[in-house]
């Protein structure tokens, strides 16, 4: 590096030269960094047009687990080709384990339903199967469900290698040929063929009157025949009022599900409401165009020619005993009239269609696909039949035609948490200023919650989800219907399950949880039941409601509305809700979801503790623990404090959630304690929820009296399978399933307990609920409460860097192409 110059001086780089070179190098380096940043920003945002992005993909036969090379490719965002065509497809691990033994709780198979049907026929209990052959004097099946065997038999089998308890079914049979006619429930089983099948009556003959049966399609068909003379008489009124429509045109129908068929269990009176429903021919129910024409039809007799029609109303004017009386007043001009504008019928489909509004421009970037998650190495859960394992959780999932979804034998970290968590019923109660809608009331289990018919691709179940089968009995065809309607997938919580950041360390865990989702439709409403299994032992049960609302006809000239020149003008609202369309009102109503929660905390010997949050004198805080305390300790600065009181509830009781009097509802085991001496338990925590809003004198309360409580606790009995009866919604004056039969004062200390949890919400529809209600949710969480000695979440890889522990990160996420 060094030598002599011509003068004999040592040659080399002079200090100034070195500084210049160094300075130039720094400038070049800085320029490169700045340029790189701008190039990176430019590339990240796709340049000035936003049309290009950088896609990084990992190559390799194992999808990233072996040594890989990275290739960066620039592709246009809006291309229709596969942007990851050169990437390796993510490995897909098959989550299914071969099922070799019979399941206790899985939905009934087609073969099992046929076995039940044929057995009931052979016993002479069922006389007609195919719907077209059924009459009002037939004995026919309306539902067949899986029926859980006694709990003690199941636990003997699962915990102590006892005998398989067998699979059983419950069948609901309408016996029009009995004397007197009635509705019966039977248990049939075992279905596995190991032993001879037996028949057990769940109800006695005549206990459930024939009038308590659910409304079905052949009763509706007979009503339509009986109504034809009425329709002919009223044709001039109907055409003039409803834009030229008539009952023969394929748009105008009678809606038969306006509420219970009368208050007297001896009489079956069905209220019918005229409506526009152009979707009816395809089997859908569009309830946004109710019309102000209604009547009652008495269908008590098994002979349709004896049915009577009365209480005819038009614009709430009536009642008229005959159609001719109404038409005479209409023609005489002595009653108010309504006349829909010409062309109104042409807008029907447009109003209930829920596809994208093509008359509006897309939002900016709405033509780009939204983000979604996938499994880079396949599912982390396994499925054996309908039993699922994931990250320490293990449980059975099933569905029942009448009652809906259920979990059985739920365990976490080898501890049974609950024996059963099951939806039992969905209750809706409406209010309206109209004859046909004012008493609308539903108990959905009466008609069947579990008519599941599959999922909507890309909506109900993510692309990486796994589908399991459900089943129900189609009483028209006499055959079973199966579909893949249970979606199982792991969800990215996209946030921290826990995190902490300090000066000396930082750590956290990105949340993920297993979801079991069952979407279904009950007439106009869609309900999605979800169970979320968390890494720390929490189990959330969630209900989501969406679909079409039910409306009433908006009568702008309603005399009950009073002065129009006020804020409560009939152009906007009335005491029952808001106007949501030209001639439609959204009706106030509630949705209440009743669950059975059979907790087994450590074992089946549990107690119910209520922890009351209070505020008051310091002495009061100590009195429960030490009655001798008489003065405030000096270390309290002032004589008021927040504290808790612990109550072990002695007998069966019910509670309402009240934010002004907060309480913790806990199921605890008196015989097992954690390391710190606290009773091991689980907390029942409802989401922000509504309880029953009707006064106790409301006629429907006896049939759904469980809705008075958000949480009620009882001693478990095999005879108390469900929180209400399938038939009480149709016999309001004499309910057999009143909740008082369950809360009858028995001891609940150190017993096998059931918590009956009811959650829900009040819905006052607004214009944003048309044409479709965007998802509204409610639910409850079961949370470990002193069940463990510490947070049960640190046995999976965490994110941690700092001076107090070993640096760690979750398994590396290598990019790959999502499975097709």
UniProtKB/TrEMBL annotation:
Keywords: Copper, Membrane, Metal-binding, Oxidoreductase, TPQ, Transmembrane, Transmembrane helix
Domain named Copper amine oxidase N2-terminal: residues: 136-195
Annotated EC: 1.4.3.-
Copper amine oxidase catalytic domain residues: 372-791
Gene3D superfamilies attached to this UniProt entry: 3.10.450.40, Copper amine oxidase, catalytic domain (2.70.98.20)
SUPFAM superfamilies referenced in this protein's UniProt entry, alphabetically: Amine oxidase catalytic domain, Amine oxidase N-terminal region
InterPro entries in alphabetical order: Cu_Am_Ox_Cu-bd, Cu_Am_ox_TPQ-bd, Cu_amine_oxidase, Cu_amine_oxidase_C, Cu_amine_oxidase_C_sf, Cu_amine_oxidase_N-reg, Cu_amine_oxidase_N2
Post-translational modification: Topaquinone (TPQ) is generated by copper-dependent autoxidation of a specific tyrosyl residue.
Cofactor list: Cu cation
Major enzyme class: oxidoreductase
Protein name (Swiss-Prot/TrEMBL): Amine oxidase
